[in-house]
Each structure stands twice: as structure tokens, then as C-alpha cells.
Write a structure and sequence with these properties.
disordered N terminus, single chain, elongated, 28 strands, mainly beta
């Protein structure tokens, strides 16, 4: 903890009021002042940092390079208005809270929001929460405690146009929550990394959509030995590669369990096709290039409706994994028919060696 004598800080009964031309032109009164000269300034005109204290403890520091920093556990509370940061880099260590208006962080340089000594929370209950970066890397991380971004008042948008985009929770659980509207993580043409080495990573929208967009850059979810959990539907425009997947199938979760019948007849009525995607007509779908094989959803729905989903706009998707059980039962039915034919052939071969004197064969 940094402490200084009271004469070193701005929290004095009176402080030097300086202009760009006259460093000791007036006294700054704690009872109030009238500023008439636009060149009047409050602060240091040399290369020293400017600090503010309460209870003889440093709370706020403005460095000689122009960086405004809260220290010794202090936070930034915005109650009633908007917080806008435009220009250089933004470095927040601690809590950033708004109860009455939007939080908007706009930077043309690097944005670093880092917690190194305890929990880190970015909370907004009064309007949209928007974190924008246009000019450099964008890093939000916490190294020594839980990491939470909570928005209850409107859309939550975290956007980066200038460099790599990292969300890091290395000191505890990472939670990104939005209760008021869509939740968007946008990194245009740059990598998007969500890393949680210290605990679970949770992204909650409570009924609204969650969009993670990178345009042409990769999205990486790095959990170490933890688990990344998605509660809700996931819609991915593009290709995905995974090293392994598991699907919940415990009998304790299921009811109305029935054996599939007529599986072979259903499989025989399906039509496998080859096709090309209409990439130019539907560019937002990011269909893969090249010739494909599969089913037509409308045709499959007539035979196996459980394997087809229709979205709000009427477009259909196929759950190919749902066909596994049908194909399994179809193979078993086919195998039963094969075994029946094999038995008949065996009896036929046996009968050929046991003809009666009249030359007649008994096949039954």
C-alpha cells in the first residue's frame, strides 16, 4: 500500500492552481473556485505524476504520460451517466461499475482490463455495456480471483477491430453474463481466445442469443483441464474440428423408451444424394466448398422426423447422429433375414444328398 504525507497530494485544504504559462498564478480553494481563463489548469506542469488521496492513502494517480490509474484497491463507479474512454489505451485494475447508464469503452490503442490482486468485476445495470477497441490488442484478464462481466440493462457487446482479442481467467472462475439482450463477442479478422486456467468458464445470456464473430480469424476456447459448458442451442456458420465428443445418453434421463421397428424398410425408403451448396446465394452461412453427400431434410423428415429440425424461418437441419440407432436396428433386421436364408440354403444342401428313390427332395 502506498501512502504519502498530505502535502504531496491533491487532497489539501488548498492546492496550487497553475496555468500553462504561470505555475503559481493562484491558490485553489476547497470551498470552491471560479475558473475564467481557459488556459487555467489543475495539476503538475513538470514530469511528475499527480496523485489523489483519501484517509492518507493514494486512490487515484495521473501519470506524466497521461494514464489515469486507480490504486490500492480503488474502483471506478459510474452512477447515473455514461463512462466513455476515447483516445489512448485503457488499463483498469479493480472494479468497473455502472448503475444508471451505459458503459462504453472506446479505444484507438491497446485495451487492458486486468485484475492481479483479487476478484475483477465489470457490472452494468442501467443500459448497454459496450467494450470497443479499434487500434491494438484487447485483453481482459484476471490472475488472482474470479472474473465476471455482468450486464442487466441491455445488449452486451465486446468488439475488437485492431488486434488479438483475449479473455483470460487464470485466477478463478470466469463468468460473462447478460440478462438484458444479445451477447456479442466480435473480433474482426483477428484471433478470439477465451482462456480459463483457474476454474470454470461460464457464458450466460438467459434467453438471448450469444454471438461470437471473428470474420476470418480463429476462435479458441482453452480450458486447460476444466470444462466449457454451453446451456442452450449453438449455431455455427462454418466448419468445426474436434478431437472427441460425448453425447448425454444415461437411462436415468429418459422415459417412453421404445424399440425401433420397421427400421430396414425406413432405411430402404431413404435417398442418399450428392450436392453442392449455394454459397453465393447464402454467403452468411459460410458453406464449405466442394461436392457434398448427405440427405435432403424435407425428404428425410417424411421418414425419420426425429432427425430433422426446423428453425424460426422455416429452414431445416439434419441431426445425422440420430440416424445411428435406426441404422443399427436396420442392420439387425437385415441380419435376421440373412440368417433365415442361410438356414434355408443349409436345408436345401442337406436335402440334395437325401433324395428318395423317386428323385423327389424334401426341403422342409
Amino acid at each position: 500500500m502506498r501512502t504519502r504525507t498530505a502535502c504531496s497530494f491533491l487532497g489539501l485544504a488548498s492546492i496550487v492552481m497553475a496555468t500553462a504559462f504561470s505555475p503559481l498564478s493562484a491558490q485553489w480553494l476547497t470551498s470552491g473556485n471560479v475558473v475564467t481563463n481557459p488556459t487555467d489548469v489543475l495539476g503538475a506542469i513538470n514530469t511528475a505524476d499527480l496523485s489523489m488521496i483519501t484517509d492518507n492513502i493514494e486512490r487515484l494517480r495521473i501519470t506524466s504520460s497521461g494514464l489515469i490509474t486507480t490504486v490500492n484497491g480503488s474502483g471506478i463507479d459510474v452512477n447515473g451517466g455514461a463512462l466513455n474512454v476515447n483516445g489512448g489505451g485503457l488499463n483498469v485494475v479493480g472494479n468497473l461499475t455502472s448503475n444508471g447508464g451505459p458503459i462504453s469503452l472506446n479505444s484507438n490503442g491497446p485495451v487492458d482490463i486486468i485484475g492481479n490482486s483479487g476478484p475483477m468485476n465489470i457490472n452494468n445495470t442501467g443500459g448497454p455495456l459496450m467494450l470497443h477497441n479499434f487500434g491494438g490488442p484487447f485483453d481482459i484478464g484476471n490472475n488472482s480471483g474470479p472474473f465476471a462481466i455482468n450486464n442487466n440493462g441491455g445488449p452486451l457487446l465486446i468488439a475488437n477491430n485492431g488486434g488479438p482479442f483475449d479473455l483470460n481467467g487464470n485466477g478463478g472462475p470466469m463468468n460473462i453474463s447478460n440478462n438484458g439482450g444479445p451477447l456479442s463477442l466480435n473480433s474482426n479478422s483477428n484471433p478470439l481466445d477465451i482462456n480459463s486456467a483457474g476454474g470454470p468458464a461460464t457464458i450466460n445470456t438467459n434467453g438471448g442469443p450469444f454471438d461470437a464473430n471473428t470474420s476470418n480469424g480463429p476462435i479458441d476456447f482453452n480450458m486447460g483441464t476444466g470444462i466449457f459448458t454451453v446451456n442452450g442451442d449453438v449455431f455455427i456458420n462454418g466448419n468445426g474440428v474436434v478431437s472427441g465428443t460425448w453425447t448425454v445418453s444415461d437411462a436415468r434421463y429418459k422415459t417412453n423408451v421404445l424399440q425401433l421397428d420397421n427400421a430396414l424398410a425406413k432405411v430402404m425408403s431413404l435417398r442418399g444424394v450428392g450436392y453442392d451448396w449455394k454459397r453465393a446465394e447464402f454467403p452468411n452461412m459460410r458453406f464449405p466448398q466442394g461436392h457434398q453427400v448427405g440427405f435432403i431434410a424435407q425428404e428425410l423428415e417424411k421418414v425419420v422426423p426425429e432427425a430433422v429440425h426446423t428453425d424460426a424461418d422455416g429452414y431445416k437441419s439434419v441431426a445425422y447422429q440420430n440416424l445411428t440407432a435406426l441404422l443399427t436396428e436396420a442392420i439387425k433386421e437385415q441380419q435376421a433375414e440373412i440368417q433365415l436364408l442361410q438356414a434355408k440354403v443349409a436345408r436345401l444342401e442337406s436335402a440334395l444328398g437325401k433324395q428318395d428313390p423317386s428323385g423327389q427332395m424334401n426341403l422342409h
